[in-house]
Write a structure and sequence with these properties.
This protein is α+β, with helices and mostly antiparallel strands. The protein folds into 3 domains: 7-52, Uridine Diphospho-n-acetylenolpyruvylglucosamine Reductase, domain 2 (2-Layer Sandwich); 62-172, Uridine Diphospho-n-acetylenolpyruvylglucosamine Reductase, domain 3, CATH 3.30.465; 179-288, CO dehydrogenase flavoprotein, C-terminal domain (Enolase-like, domain 1, 2-Layer Sandwich), CATH 3.30.390.50. Helix content is 32%, strand content 26%. The chain has 11 helices and 14 strands. It has helices at residues 14-23, 36-41, 77-81, 84-89, 91-97, 103-108, 111-117, 123-130, 227-233, 240-244, 263-288; strands at 7-9, 27-30, 49-52, 62-64, 68-72, 134-139, 142-147, 152-154, 157-158, 165-172, 179-186, 193-203, 209-217, 224-225. The strands form 4 sheets. The chain has a 5-stranded antiparallel sheet. A 4-stranded antiparallel sheet has the order 11-12-13-14, with helices on both faces. A 3-stranded parallel sheet has the order 1-3-2, with helices on one face. The protein is globular and about 60 Å long. The termini are far apart.
Length: 289
């Protein structure tokens, strides 16, 4: 399969990118291309203009500050996977990103491309919800930073305006040490996840939950934060009984229903994965208390 005809643009600065977005109709940004090119080949996407971000300076970087992890939008997933700084500060990212496609996919795929494609099953999308990331967006009128929770607005649809480009992701650091776990179920390794669950956990002495975050991927058009469950767990010991009785927190879920799994099956799978992730996160947290 070959894509339909399009005009190719290779800007070298973010200013040129914004100018092109402002002046060209029906344009798409090319980051890693691991999703866009496949969609174009299958005629799911038919842009008249493709704007390649690969030559734009200063969009690929990993920087750790005392409070945040800052990642440029064009940073390759492979660089994130092998970053010792990320593994030391937020090891859940290292654990989760190994589920992203295959090595060849991660060699080209970028964090910004994944977030903007916004596949419901995408691991980086779920992580940004779990870790309460924010994204920086640039347009001709200037830049803005928004919480990632405001970024998804529909299936495969972000809140980016036609003349805007995502340039960076900022992730608050958790105190070290902490417990964490990211698990998913896919038909085969590298396939899109049918469902996934991520847990971040900080325990006080005697196993009392000081802070917790739980997010599900693959069950809705955007990641689902289980805020009611998080509130219920705070301030109490995270016992096995507490983990086995969380089922009521999933009753309100109405997961996606498609050829891979029914909504009912996804709900049961999300519960099982969350319990598994909570046990692993608790074990890791207790080992560090």
């Amino acid at each position: 399969m070959k894509p339909p005809p399009f005009d190719y643009h290779a800007p070298r600065s973010i200013g040129e990118v914004v100018a092109l977005l402002r002046s060209l109709e029906n344009s798409r940004l090319l980051a890693g291309g691991q999703s866009l090119m496949a969609m174009m080949n299958m005629r799911f996407a038919m842009p008249d203009h493709v704007i390649d971000l690969n030559r734009v300076e200063h969009l690929s970087s990993i920087r750790v500050t005392p409070t945040h992890l800052e990642i440029g939008a064009m940073t390759r997933q492979r660089d994130i996977e092998f970053s010792k700084e990320i593994e030391a500060k937020l090891p859940i990212i290292t654990e989760a990103i190994r589920h992203v496609g295959h090595r060849q996919t991660r060699n080209r795929g970028t964090i910004g491309g994944s977030l903007c494609h916004l596949d419901p099953s995408a691991e980086l999308v779920t992580l940004c919800s779990l870790l309460e990331a924010s994204v920086t967006i640039v347009a001709s009128a200037g830049s803005r930073t928004i919480p990632f929770s405001e970024f998804p607005i529909g299936y495969l649809t972000t809140s980016l305006r036609p003349d805007e480009c995502l340039t960076a992701v900022s992730i608050p650091l958790w105190p070290s040490p902490h417990g964490f776990s990211f698990v998913e179920i896919a038909r085969r390794h590298g396939d899109f996840a049918i469902a996934s669950a991520g847990v971040m956990l900080e325990l006080a002495p005697r196993g009392v939950v000081r802070r917790v975050a739980i997010a599900l991927g693959g069950v809705d058009f955007a990641p689902v934060r289980l805020t009611a469950l998080e509130a219920r767990l705070l301030g109490a010991p995270l016992s096995e009984d507490a983990i086995t009785t969380i089922g009521s927190s999933f009753d309100h879920l109405e997961p996606l229903d498609d050829i891979h799994a029914t909504s009912k099956y996804r709900r049961r799978l999300a519960l099982s994965l969350t319990q598994r992730a909570m046990r692993t996160a608790a074990r890791r947290a207790l080992a560090s208390v």
